[in-house]
Amino acid sequence: MHCWSIILAAGSGTRLSAATNGIKKQFLEWQGAPLFWQSAITFSHTTRMRGLVFVFPEEDIDEATETLKKLDFGRRLGLPWKVVAGGARRQDSVYNGLQALPTECTHILVHDAARPFFSATLTNTLLDALEKGSQAVIPAIPVTDTIKVVENNSICHTLDRSTLRACQTPQGFHKKMLIEAHNKCNEEGWEVTDDASIVEQAGYSVATVAGEMTNCKITNPEDLAMIESKQTSMPVPVTGWGYDVHRYGEGRPMKLGGIPIQGGPQVVAHSDGDVLLHALCDALLGCMGDGDIGEHFPDSSAQFDNISSGVLLNEVYDKFLQRGYRLTNIDLTIIAQVPRLVPWKPQIKKNICRMLKLNDDQVNVKATTEEKLGFTGEKKGIKAVAAIMALRG
Q1: Is 108 part of any known ligand binding site?
Q2: Confidence at residue 46, expressed as pLDDT on a 0 to 100 scale
Q3: 292 is in an annotated binding site
Q4: What confidence score (pLDDT) does residue 359 get?
Q5: 369 annotated to a ligand binding site
Q6: 82 and 54 Cβ atoms separated by less than 8 Å
Q7: Per-residue pLDDT for 12 more than 90?
Q8: How many domains, in total, are found in the chain?
Q9: What's 168's domain CATH number?
Q10: Span 239-245, average pLDDT
């Protein structure tokens, strides 16, 4: 799977213009950035996401692109992105976004920037369904109100709400199928409200997964209260501390922070023996109050024999993000008499920034010896400690 997301932020927001002094809702500020940025950040926390296409109003495209460049300084998103101009209708904007996708892209998530509070968990649920073979999948929630069909202010009949669902975005699709459906839509002049409708009319089946009650769409002035309420909730600062040790001996080639250390001693380990990433995993688990790395990835399991510690870190970090935590900074220390690690520190730091999608000033990597004292001083092994700060909520 090679999945990109199209973030639709090309609407005019006419229903909200009076309440926002003419500012289009996708450009309303939330936590110091335009509202559309929240969707981009959530997608960036999904490890299977490969890139983003932003669709903006044509008249705002230059300013919005400059804003994106500033927000993504230091590659904060950790993803490639493109910008295209929207069209007159939502379906036209999606079509323009489809044209910007790279040829290697196989699957797409289409999302309305007016739904900024979906979670990475929902994104992963959609990707799971696509990986299992669904050509189209959308999130849906049960309808709780009684729905009636009305003509000329008179009720015609009442619908059975047990069969009704309210649909949300992101919506997931196989790329080739969605492009074919959009081409047919344009040829036959359909008018639709979402991409699932296009796919249905083109004769394809659409699967559903459980949506999220918090994944609300900002449409009317009263919906602005959702932004304001989230602005006033204060995140809670939390800390985590991790520690790990490996002894030297015939085993795995040395890796630190995902970087192979050429000429370093081999380490005895069940996984690939990356002591630094193991300490970092423990620090993340400590923030969550979720045990330690040995509980989650026991060395008694053949499943984790020689597994990349980067895979373990991805799994722990996904859980960390899905539970609503946000890293603010990491301080790492490697303790070893040998090898000399000064030349490797910049590469290790850069790689950890990449893996966790953090800026350069959020990660620090140190290396020290113990003045030839203890087992590290006697060149019998290596150890690492990790201290992290994060915000919860």
Answers
A1: no
A2: 86
A3: yes
A4: 86
A5: yes
A6: yes
A7: no
A8: 2
A9: 3.90.550.10
A10: 96
Q: What is the pTM of this model?
A: 0.62
Is 239 exposed, middle or buried, given 0-12, 13-18 or 19+ CB atoms closer than 10 A? exposed
The answer to whether 169 is a known ligand-binding residue is no
Which of 232, 247, 268 is the last residue in one of the domains? 232
How many C-beta atoms lie closer than 10 Å to residue 109's C-beta? 23
Same domain, residue pair 66 and 159: yes
Tell me: is residue 296 an annotated ligand-binding position.
no
**Does residue 174 have a known ligand-binding role?**
no
Same domain, 119 and 37: yes
Question: What's the CATH code of the domain at 301?
Answer: 3.30.1330.50
- φ and ψ of 210, to 5 deg: -65, 125
- C-beta of residue 48 within 8 angstroms of C-beta of residue 3: yes
Residue with the larger pLDDT of the pair 198 and 299: 198
107 is in an annotated binding site: no
Structure tokens at 281: 């995993």
End-to-end, the C-alpha distance of the chain in Å comes to: 31
Query: What length does the chain have?
Result: 393
Round the average pLDDT of the chain to a whole number and report it.
90
Average pLDDT of 276-297?
94
pLDDT of residue 78: 85
Residue 205 is labelled as binding a ligand: no
The parent domain of residue 347 ranges over 236-392
